[in-house]
């Protein structure tokens, strides 16, 4: 369910980033991004580092509380242990979701709310990782954060059980948190899990159907459930911990959802036209896999000769590494308007996200952190 | 994770049992049981029917709240829908766990506590069914409650996702329950899920190891986690909803755990020496499957010639349907003391359960319902 491919460099868990690291990141961000703005890159990197530093000790303590084998599987998944149980540098992803929780809490309730929201940020990250463990089993994905996925090394049963346990840990953490918002946050996070499951279910079901049978609305709904829901929930939970009014909680949820959809649209564009040297995948990997990504479905449902050509290409099995056919398919998606549509949609979603954010957090300075995170998530181009 | 094989007859969901049904059940219980006592059979059947009637409407409403395909999978799993989506008679198991929640609440807090504990009873039943869905995937079990398991008809991904959603639903229900005990109950139920996962993990890992490498203590610990933990949690959650003191909550947890272990010991005895016409499985099915059940591990670790003979038999692959070898293996388990040990252990566990129950609920009349349920669970012989 929606992982951001950009990964931080491994570093010892809990270590503060050196100035050098931040500098290197800043230059990478600027370089791969191509359009540095006042709000992206550096500020987001600092926010993400701060979130990781706030969240890691509690996150790790929660994972360490698991009994025996479940702990080993989870520590491996989070990148804190090698397969043989020796300590690893830690490579537990970008912490986008915990950062959204903490930054939303800070935007609406200041530093005290940010500090109080750490257990909620940990819970959201545990849920995210539960879905990664299970999605990898279902999708037969073999690599996660540059390492073999848990199911490939421990087997399906262990990966499923570790995921189950992480979901339980997340909701236990909130149930044990005395903060007055913890109950509402738990209810919201549990409802979000149902939505994430529905999104993953729709995705796996859709991939089995013929390309012509899939509508654009349902792919958008699937992407919102699979990717937008947890980003929205992270922001909403942060707002709850700040004691925000219902309409502000709802606005922050919508902000996260729209930004999540914008991310997914851009991610899908990169999956077709991304530079292989930056994505680490062969050109047009999503096309070779016949993925019904958003630009593809937009193109297929657009009518006209390019849509018909694309449909015919998607019906035929690919020859392995047939670059010419990949190029023809990408061109058909583009000619049928799939690329333009996705880019316009992404811009539109980001505009809506900004509107929602401005509604809940009118002061641009206070909204700056959330804006930076949204820009970071959607502007990355690798 | 520990399902009781005795299943109620299908009946329309929510329908009250007819006198005839109760009569038939009473006679079945007496007949198969062989040692009717004042506390088993009929009273337990009435308690289970009442629990089902109290819990089914909320349980069904929770499942119906799931979106689209997840709802269909869950309704099928619970026996409320056929595969084609038409209504089914309902065959959602015995409701032992919800009955324990409600009966514990009543024993410690009277009828008002029982009524208030319905959401908690629903949550426990949702967790139980989440584990069934996932265990069936991992164990490749093809039949559940006389029907094909969910993964065999919907596929692994759908069964995993429906299970994930049921866990979330359970914890959402408690998070949304305004009862003062709901937070403590959620924390306890989530901790129990971790224990259930650890038990299932230990079980699947154990089955891959050589028979001589498995110790009796670890099989007992596994059985307690896999079967005892949720029965204990059900009782503890009921006590929490009755506003019971910590030590009474702990005593009821221990009561449920010990009764659960007694059940597992007896279930394992039946898995070897049960009457095939009653179990519905071939004689010695657990031996043919080389299951490291409690009597087998007790026998293997007992030392002496019968243990050595059993170890040799367990190393060799069975010829299909080789009745003579099944009989020899069963005899080796018996000679090595596995049967006697399991029966003595079961009696011992039941005695401990009774002690714990008497500690928390000294009045025999108030304790009667829980006693009847424990007897029901452990005395069944089919």
List the SSEs and their pairings.
Two copies of one chain form a homodimer.
Chain A: H1 19-33, H2 42-64, H3 68-77, H4 96-116, H5 118-139, E1 143-144, E2 147-148, H6 150-154, H7 156-175, H8 182-208, H9 216-241, H10 246-273, H11 276-279, H12 285-288, H13 294-300, H14 305-315, H15 323-335, H16 338-360, H17 364-379
Antiparallel strand pairs in A: 1-2
Describe what this molecule looks like in 3D.
In chain A, helix 4 (96-116) packs antiparallel against helix 5 (118-139) and helix 13 packs across helix 15 (323-335). With 382 residues, chain A is mostly helical. Helix content of chain A is 72%, strand content 1%. Chain A is globular. A two-stranded antiparallel sheet of chain A has the order 1-2. Chain A is built from 17 helices and 2 strands. Residues 5-40 of chain A have low confidence and may be disordered. Chain A has a single domain, classed as Farnesyl Diphosphate Synthase. At the A-B interface, helix 3, helix 5, helix 7 and helix 8 of A face helix 3, helix 5, helix 7 and helix 8 of B.
Strand neighbour order, sheet with most strands of chain A:
1-2
Radius of gyration of chain A: 20 Å
Relative helix content of chain A? over 70%
For the record, the CATH class of chain A is Mainly Alpha
Strand percent estimate of chain A: under 5%
Biggest β-sheet of chain A, characterized?
Answer: 2 strands, antiparallel
Low-confidence stretches of chain A: 5-40
Number of strands of chain A: 2
The CATH topology annotation of chain A reads as Farnesyl Diphosphate Synthase
In DSSP terms, counting alpha (H) and pi (I) runs of 4 or more, how many helices of chain A? 17
SSE pattern of chain A: HHHHHEEHHHHHHHHHHHH
CATH homology-level superfamily of chain A: Farnesyl Diphosphate Synthase
Mean pLDDT reading of chain A:
88
CATH architecture type of chain A: Orthogonal Bundle
The pair of chains with the biggest contact is:
A-B, 43 and 43 residues
Structural class of chain A: mainly alpha
Distance between the termini of chain A: 18 Å
